[in-house]
Amino acid sequence: MNLQNGLVLIASYFFYGWWSWPFLLLLFGSTVLDYFLVFLVASENANTAKWSLRIGVFINLGILGVYKYYNFFIEQFQVAFDSLGVHTSLPILKIALPIGISFYTFHGLSYVFDVYKKQQKPVTNFIEYAVFVGFFPLLVAGPIERANHLLPQIQKARKFNYKQSVQGLRLILWGMFKKVVIADSLATIVNSIYANYANHDAYTLIIGAVAFSFQIYGDFSGYSDIAIGTAKLFGFELLSNFKFPYFSRDIAEFWRRWHISLSSWFRDYLYIPLGGSKLGKLISIRNTFIIFLVSGFWHGASWNFIAWGFIHALGFLPLLLLNRNRKFVTNVVAENSWYPSIKEAFQMISTFLFVTLAWIFFRAENISKALGYIKKIATSTIQNPSQFIGLPGGHSDPLALQSVIYYVIPMIAFDWLFRRNERELFTSVKSSVLRWIVYVVIGLFVLFFFGTKSSFIYFQF
């Protein structure tokens, strides 16, 4: 077991260090800090435990704040002072954002919080804890793991499991398809439209917004599938991060299915400690807006991300006021049928359109461009659909809409087929020969589309 963990840790640090050895030292330092600090957090002395917790939270969030948010706040201070006629020259840090810092910071914080709440005992073996924080499949873009879920798996010997490995390879293959074939192909169209949105009509901009909805889903859920599948090859079971969110029937269900590990993290470590929904409706509303705004800010130090979180809070608010936010908790759409009912179809479409509108703020470079994008949709006329997209240089691509359809439909079809269990890919295909044909076809698509493509979107968070 110690040898297994040692090899996994070396592989994880090599993986991260290949990108930046200096930032590997930051990861290591953060790991060492939390490893030693929790022994004080676990103290039976209440004051010692409380102050150790505060110090741990302050240092962890302080490191994250310096690298991710310092320049944002400095720029906002300068704008505020300038508006008052006071000109300042505050220093701006010219440093890169360490890949995955938001993810491994939240890994460490969840461990510290769980130890403080007596839900997790401090880990005495440093290598075991270092593997928990730095396990390479989840290091740069999640899922955000919990100590009580992953550490027990690290602390026991692992043996090769054929069924688990097959599941892992299927997830990796499907994740590569979603990323390389779908997301990266849609990225070309999305980037062109958003870069020149002022020159397009409403039809074009709507197509661009829809295309980005599927681009970011294919990109991020694709990475999560690859991460979960790779972990299976090492004998680990990671938390699910996506459960077909575009089949959600309201915004509350969407957030139970989208970036699940982050949503549940904010629920357990922010929403519930603030009082959750047990202190009255006004407190529930306040807490809802807090977690959505913080979630938006977690994604990036920019007002457009905060606006994105605020929009989702507004969408969640009616459900909260009507006590309908927990209506779709355990079941899936069309659970006992091949097709959704008319009501379910309407619910899914309306939820998807709301989410797509919010994604405009997420994708745009800043909030003014997001508002400009939406304003252009609302005020421009729809031109000839066959000439809806103007590419750089003034050329048009009449096949762009067809391309979006070609890339989106296969993903929707496969997701609908697997919607009852995101881990059991392709098992509904009973014939082994037919399954292998599916594997080969998907693999050939991945090889054909593979090349110099964009990095995963969530690497920047």
Keywords, please?
two-stranded antiparallel ribbon, 2 domains
Commentary on this structure:
The chain is about 65% helix and about 0% strand. The relative contact order is 0.11. Helix 1 packs across helix 2 (about 20-40) and helix 8 (about 160-195) runs parallel beside helix 17. The protein is mostly helical and about 450 residues long. It is globular, with a radius of gyration of 23 Å. Strands 1-2 form a two-stranded antiparallel ribbon. The chain has helices at about 1-20, 20-40, 45-85, 100-115, 125-135, 135-140, 145-155, 160-195, 200-235, 250-255, 260-270, 280-300, 305-320, 340-365, 365-380, 400-420, 430-450; strands spanning about 390, 395. The protein has two domains: about 1-155, no CATH class; about 165-250 and about 330-460, no CATH class.
Averaged pLDDT, please? 86
Low-confidence stretches: 385-398
Oligomer: single chain
Strand order of the largest sheet: 1-2
Shape: globular
Query: What value does the Rg take, in angstroms?
Result: 23 Å
Work out the strand percent: under 5%
Task: For the record, give the distance between the C-alpha atoms at the N and C termini, rounded to a whole number.
Answer: 32 Å
Give helix and strand order, one letter per element, not per position. HHHHHHHHHHHHHHHEEHH
Q: Which structural category do the helix and sheet elements fall into?
A: mainly alpha
Number of strand elements? 2
The number of domains: 2
Instruction: Bin the helical content.
Output: 55-70%
User: Biggest β-sheet, characterized?
Assistant: 2 strands, antiparallel
Q: What is the overall number of helices?
A: 17
